[in-house]
Amino acid sequence: MKPVIVVVGATGQQGGSVINALINSNKWTVRGLSRNISSEGSQKLIANGVQIISCNIDCFDECVEAFKDAYGVFAMTNYWECGMTKEYEQGMNMVNAAKQQGVRHFIWSSLPDTKAISNGQLDLPHY
Question: With a threshold of 0.70, does the pTM exceed it?
Answer without folding.
Answer: yes
